[in-house]
Amino acid sequence: MKKKKIFQGKILNLTIYDLMIKGRKVKREMIEHRGAAAILAFDENDKVILVKQHRFPHGYVIEIPAGTLEKKETPVKCAFRELKEETGYKAKKMTPLITYYPSIGYNTEAIHCFFASGLMKISDLKLDEDEILSVIKMDFKKLILMIKNGKIKDSKTICAVLIYAIKNKLL
């Protein structure tokens, strides 16, 4: 296998691979990403904690809190960190829901979704310089309806919410 890195960025790299699969020469363009953690969390009033975030080129979207793993950071540690940074909440426990590949054909990113429990509001938001977001809270049933009606298009939110609903027999 031969590889050539053609772009190195802050959160991703682009590499071209020349390899053999079943005796055939193939070329693969891969986005290389460290992965991310996403968190489904409910506040003390049983409302889902979401963020309304600007996601270029799509504008503002509603999604669960999430972020990219730092170098050598575990997904669960990232989940605790991102929940605190984006919402000001600290969780006692992170329970894995699902890990999936959002773009399996050309991207190495894995998204690790967690359910956060034992929440306590401890601080204000600690956003990265380029993050533009606000916290919103919503009933779980309304969130399911927004997914069903196509108003929520974010894959990590859809996956985490639906897996949580299935595991808890809410669907």
Radius of gyration: 18 Å
CATH homolog superfamily of the largest domain? Nucleoside Triphosphate Pyrophosphohydrolase
When the domains are counted, the total is 2
Please provide the count of β strands: 12
State the helix count.
Answer: 3
Order of helices and strands: EEEEEEEHEEEEEHH
CATH architecture of the largest domain: Alpha-Beta Complex
Describe the fold and architecture.
- The chain is of the alpha+beta class and 171 residues long.
- The chain has helices at 75-87, 140-148, 155-167; strands at 2-8, 12-21, 24-33, 36-41, 48-55, 59-63, 66-68, 89-90, 93-100, 111-117, 120-121, 133-138.
- The protein is globular and about 55 Å long.
Concise overview:
20% of the residues lie in helices and 43% in strands.
Please tag this protein with its features.
globular; 3 helices; 4-stranded mixed beta sheet; Nucleoside Triphosphate Pyrophosphohydrolase; 3-stranded antiparallel beta sheet; 171 residues; single chain; alpha+beta; 2 domains
Write the layout of secondary structure elements.
Layout (H helix, E strand, L loop, with lengths): L1 E7 L3 E10 L2 E10 L2 E6 L6 E8 L3 E5 L2 E3 L6 H13 L1 E2 L2 E8 L10 E7 L2 E2 L11 E6 L1 H9 L6 H13 L4
